[in-house]
Predict the structure.
Amino acid sequence: MPTGLPKILYESRFMDAVPVASSTAAGNFNVLNLRDFRPYTQWKPAAMPATVTVDSGAAKSADYCAVYGHDLFTQGATLEVRRSTDNFAANDVLVATILPASNDPFILQFASVSFRYWRIKVTGATAPSLAIAALGVALEMPRRLREGFDPVGRVVKGQYNQSVKGHPLGRAVLYEEWSEALQFKNLTWTFIRTSWLAAWRAHLRGNPWIFVWDPTDHASEIFLVAAKDQFKTPHHVGEFADLSLDVMGVAA
């Protein structure tokens, strides 16, 4: 269930096997685009309602669904998370649903359940486009971020223009970069050696991932980030250590 502890979202049932779309629009809209954590590739169905289904091979858990890069609001579409024991033949159960109020990224959080077959379903009159959809188990950090974390600050990337006499003429903005140091104090070595290292080796060191710094009070502040070259775990006396790493992404 939702808590205010930071969450890292990368693990997804759509990586268990090749997901199957009910339909796909003509063009570069392959359903595999949903699981690559890249915001510039998309899946779009050819007909509505539409589903993306995965057979995990065995019962696998999920407690969140994250969608990044979509036009569900513009198209007036609803997204549902559904699960099944028989590949949606007779057993088809709604887990969570949302009618987005904007095209901003969002997360659906729900009590963890474990099933073999998972599905997202979009309903409405007009087919939307989705860039990233992850459905799995969140990596919840055991501590809140240390003081000094800045979820709003950003750096403008673009061309600054001025006249021949130095007067400001404005800026051609390409994008705004969000770059932060994530620092967690007094984590157990057990968490670092098992949960953190497993996530780092499986996904975080080489692929983009989604970071939600406060899923209870600031659930809309969702960042698609990549880790920089290293993380550090300085030791404390006892069974504790700090964890720090730098990340960067595009500010929404």
In short: The chain has two domains: 7-140, 155-250. The two ends are 25 Å apart (CA to CA). Residues 7-140 form a domain with the Jelly Rolls fold (CATH 2.60.120.260). The chain has a mean pLDDT of 95.
